[in-house]
Specification:
The chain has 361 residues and is α/β, with parallel strands linked by helices. The chain is built from 12 helices and 13 strands. 31% of the residues lie in helices and 20% in strands. Helix 3 (130-141) runs parallel beside helix 4.
Amino acid sequence: MNTNYTLNTLGFTEKFKQEALKYPAFYPGLVIEQNRNQYTVATQSGEVKAEVSGKYRFEASASLDFPVVGDFVLLDRETDSTGRAQIQRCLLRHSALIRKAAGEAHERQLMAANIDKVLICMSLNEDFNLRRAERYLTLVWESGALPVFVLTKTDVAQDMEQKQAALQEISFGVDIIMTSSQTENGYVSLQSYITNGETYVLIGSSGVGKSTLVNTLLGQKTLKTNDLRNDGKGKHTTTQRRLFQLPSGAMIIDTPGIREVGLDQASFNESFSDIAALESQCKFSDCAHGTEPECAVQAALIQGELSYERFANYQKLQKEMAYTGLHAKEVERKKLDMMFKEVGGMKKARKTLKQKNKRHY
């Protein structure tokens, strides 16, 4: 990272300054790189290697309490000449991008903090997927940052206009930027979109061109890039999160490719505002959108105003969110309650069954 900076140019706003002043014994800094439990922090005196202090680690109640790239932190020193600096605390965030960690575990993973816009990168080859795009939108709206779609590899797209139109239909006004690494002016639209003083984070699958995009914005080949596999999917190139300051003064955070978009919380009112509007028109407030009379959602599906694929994904995400954070037995219990919803849940179903058995004997 270019070391010709001050904390002010890295987004150390008055809000952060006032909070830092409450702890005069410590030095403020910005986390610009994270590799497991090791950090690189930009301070007023330069970059230092740092780690979380033992006291901080003991007092942290959850993994989300630990620093991540984009966080402003307080250190016990401004240089690491006498050993790694110790991170004493993390200043309050104004936004946080969080997802459910991959796999069966219900752990929450903090991806980046204090970001203004999330650049959702999708390639116009085999990676393009509207259902995944809906997941990305749901993830970003909950973060407190604004989503922006960046479509890469326009030079290989066979049906670019159709894909762009389909994405516009589900994203309701979210900006869409088209890019290509193979044409002379392939990134002009993105470069003009980047604004000085804002912090951006890149998310997307491996191989969509995130590292190439960062190199182009930096004006030099800083990040390694890899070719696609034979199936059109990418190989993991970036293995850690890192913040770069661009020549324009803006900052951008590169992240490893996402294999699956696990949702921690979901802002359905933003991502599925069309379906939310339809649900408000249903006759019954608890309408399940199945066989209920005067169901506005079913009417829209039949008339072709709402696609069955989009509604199915909406229902799938709702179920996924309902099970988030639950243990295996709790998940099973919730599933049974949903199965017996019409009779008041599993407990009531058991009670009814017992009463029937008593009458039988």
